[in-house]
Amino acid sequence: MNEAFRYETLSVRENEQKFRFTGPFREFPEVTISMNGPHQIKNAAVALMTIEVLRQYYAMIVEEEDLLRAMNATQWPGRLELISTHPRILIDGAHNPEGAETLASAIKTTYSYKKLHLMMGMLSNKNHTEYFRHILPIVDTLILTEPVWFKKAGAAGLASLARTLLEEIGRTDVEVIVEPNWKTALEIMNRLTAQDDLAVVTGTLYLIGDVRSWIKHQSDSEKGW
What's the angle, vertex CA 83, arms to CA 166 and CA 9, rounded to 5? Predict the structure, then answer.
């Protein structure tokens, strides 16, 4: 990537990241995106380079003003998406160790909070141990629930694994709550989350879709969005 183009982060704050892009054809001194997480700057730079190649070699016409406006307007539902401000609730469909690592990094670098309350539901065929290794060091409260899906992982089993791993890293201060019903789990998380805290719902997209639909539309399911 560095041989073809480069990017440099200029500033990072919640819902706004700025970077400089230097490609083989031209430079963009300042590009603004509203998606969160350092990985989204990388993704945006790759997208810019792709457009630059299409513009240079395939005569695709893109006005610079329109391009920069589109970069800033781009959203990705269910990926570091703030869906409530009172309390602050962030949803992210991280469902594997790589996703958990990216989520943990974004939370640490982008968001400010007093306590982090994390609600999670997973499918049974995922690498739960390595997922937890990225997430457990940053949480204050861990709420284990279950998605409405036949391949769901049991909340009690996830809690047992989490408690074992918390012992290994010496975290005796983390509250672990088991609530299989995700709507009840969401109510518990809401009650626990003070205004200067951050609540995160993560795990399988089957859970994220339902939570997103319930909070935004009071509908039971948004699978397929």
Answer: 75
SS3 60: coil
* Residue 138 burial class via C-beta count within 10 angstroms: exposed 0-12, middle 13-18, buried 19 and up: middle
Q: What is the pLDDT of residues 145-182, one digit of tens each?
A: 999 999 999 999 999 999 999 999 999 999 999 999 99
End-to-end CA, the chain? 32
Cα 87 versus chain centre, distance: 17
Tens of pLDDT, residues 10-56: 999 888 999 999 999 999 999 999 998 888 999 999 999 999 999 99
pTM for this model (two decimals): 0.84
* Measured distance CA(122)–CA(82) in Å, rounded: 20
Q: Which residues contact 59 (CB under 8 A, 6 or more apart)?
A: none
List Cβ neighbours of 166 (8 Å cut-off, separation of 6 or more): 136, 172, 174, 176
